[in-house]
Amino acid sequence: MIIFINQKKLYTNCKYKKLFLKTAIDVQVVLRILVDKEIATREEIQKYREEVSNSPKYKIVLDDIKRQKVGFQAAKDNPQEYLQALLRAKMNGNIK
To answer: Cα–Cα distance between 64 and 92 in angstroms, integer?
Structure first.
C-alpha cells in the first residue's frame, strides 16, 4: 500500500501550528507580566477568560469545536455506525 503525502498541505499545517504556538506563548508572556506586576490577579484573568469564552463571538466557535469533538469520538468509538450515518446523510442530500 502506497500512501501519497501532500507536502504543501503538511507544510501549511505546520505553519499554522507554529503560528498558533507562537501566539499562545505571546499570550502567556503578557499574562505573566500582568500578574507579576500586580496589574491583574490570576482570578481576574480567569474571570475575564470565562466572560470572553461565553461571548457570542467566541461561544459559537467553541460550541462548534465541542460538537466536532463529539463527532470524532463517535467515529472512533464506532466507525461502522459513523460511516453508515455519514452515507445516509450523503444519500439524503444533507451533506454536499
So the answer is: 23
Cα–Cα distance between 20 and 12 in angstroms, integer? Answer: 12
Q: What is the pLDDT of residue 9?
A: 80
d(CA 25, CA 31): 10
DSSP state of 26: H
Instruction: Report the amino acid identity of residue 34.
Output: L
pLDDT, residue 62, reads 93
**pTM greater than the 0.70 cutoff:** no
Q: Per residue in 40-79, is it b (16+ CB within 10 Å) or e — as a string?
A: eeeeeeeeeeeeeeeeeeeeeeeeeeeeeeeeeeeeeeee
76: which 3 cell numbers?
Answer: 472512533
